[in-house]
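Continued from yesterday's entry.
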Amino acid sequence: MYVWFSICMIGVIAVIPLHFLSVEHVKLQGKYGKAKGIRIGEIYGLISGWGFYIFWMGIWISPQVRFTVPILQHISFLVPIVNFSIPLLHIVLGIIFIVPGAWLGIAGVKETTLKVAETHRTDKIITTGVYSLIRHPQYLGGLLSHIGISFLLSAWFSLLVTPLMIILVYLISWKEEKELIIEFDKEYEDYKKKVPMLIPRIKK
């Protein structure tokens, strides 16, 4: 029962070193030359980016212990295709997290383009739209969606590993920012001072 969940957890962690390599643009270009360095970085980015999210989705859907929040648990909806019952409260909680999570992810990709999101390489610092609120909207969107889908699928192990996913996302964000400072220097430092990493400021 726990094999697929374990494989997906190991997979999520295993692709992070490759993700770290993918954002070391200056180092890769210095080692292989500009054109080849960019291409290698993009390949690393595609493999690690898609790998991370595929394994992350695997965590949600892998066979695992199911849970029920002990409130309104008697009101549930049956999904006939998979013969899966979803408690009403889980649907509500899922929507509360998934909707803003999906919006952040889509808005982030719209601002940077899909290519930048996939390859982890940009030619300029994006400070408009959702990037004026937080520096990593797609990662925050992923975390919110993770919580929402865990409730929607009543996936107990998925919900339990949420703190670990937060740590992993923070480490990825930290590494990306370290490399962005090397590439863009003061421009990114100034952006960091104005905009929070993952938690938006509540404006007065």
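--- second protein ---
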Amino acid sequence: MSKISTQKAFIFLGAPGAGKGTFSQIFVSKFGWVQLSTGDLCRKHIAQGTDLGKQIDFAIKSGKLVDDVVIIDMVSQWVDEHIKMAPGIIFDGFPRTLVQARLFLELIQKRFSELVVNVIQFEIPDSLIIERLSARKTCSNKQCQAIYSLLEQSTQKSQKNGICDKCGSVLMQREDDKSETVAARLQIYHQHAQPLLDFYKKNNFIIHRINAQAPLQAVQGELEMIAGI
């Protein structure tokens, strides 16, 4: 595949369960964008049993953020491999800390200054996050990782209970989606979210606030409008 110049990028900023992964998948499948999910990268390293994977696994099960140096090492490698292969990029839940944000800004300025980066802030109350995460199931196939919901009103329910529609693998609940770790994850998110927003404002990033409680089609339409699609 010939490489093309990438012009557009989103930083998806929001609490776990706010919908970042769902809309990332929509843009990937519908518009050919690429998605950088540090969560998926972490799980890949865990599955492969690498040294990084062992560090990541311990942090996730403890309800803590993975070390910034580990995250940046993984992200840098992914950027080198993928960033010029699609018309747009979604940075799903990354950066998560000010250290990551500063390093990421340096990366853009030095190597990818052609990118027009928009920050999308997914706004949603914690009570709904807890409800969503406790009902969220993920495909156990590490190459798929499709996300589903057990909520009655959700549009993301699998056609066959407990089975992935895309690849037929069994659905599972991630360790970091279990109720005992959700509160800790939300606390960590809120601790870092406002400093990140302040950093983006200071460095002239365009910030769009999205009501993540709105119906899926409404949120998707707003994102497409922002992206100029």
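The first helix runs from residue 20 to 31. Residues 136 and 149 are 5 Å apart (CA to CA). Will compare against the first tomorrow.
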